[in-house]
Amino acid sequence: MNELISKEIIDYCKIGSLPKEDQVEMIERFGRIIYQAILVKSLDILSEKEQTSLDLLLDEDKTTTNDVLNFLKLKIPTFDILLEDERMNLKDDLFVSVA
């Protein structure tokens, strides 16, 4: 997702001592969880027309995660808040799982 989130995941999950490839794999897993949560929440926020545009974007073979996130940033004025909320939800879920 971005370097700040990656560093936070490494610090929060205490995976800094793992081999770099294992760290990358865990960060990618957490990133996918956050990405999927953002997609689901976005459907409640986007208009029908915007949802249709998102569906078309998702159906394109060349679409990347960044393409989708950039689309959502343009369409959702509170996208940064949504991202932060989902990041915190993941942290809370991890904390509850570990506790």
Question: Would you kindly provide a brief summary of this structure?
Answer:
The protein has 99 residues and is an all-alpha fold. The protein has one domain (3-98). It is 81% helix and 0% strand.
* Poorly predicted runs of 5 or more residues: none
Number of helices: 5
Number of domains: 1
C-alpha geometry: globular
Strand content: under 5%
Main sheet, how many strands, which sense, barrel? none
Summed over residues and divided by their number, the pLDDT gives a mean of 85
- Give the class from helix and strand content and strand pairing: mainly alpha
Give Rg in angstroms.
15 Å
Number of strands: 0
> N-to-C terminal Cα separation, in Å?
26 Å
Helix coverage percent: over 70%
Along the chain, the helix and strand elements come as HHHHH
Kindly describe this structure.
The chain is an all-alpha fold. The protein has one domain (3-98). Helix content is 81%, strand content 0%. It is built from 5 helices and no strands. It has helices spanning 3-13, 20-45, 48-59, 65-75, 79-98. Helix 2 crosses helix 5 and helix 3 (48-59) runs antiparallel to helix 4 (65-75). The longest helix has 26 residues, at 20-45. The chain starts with a helix and ends with a helix. The mean pLDDT is 85.
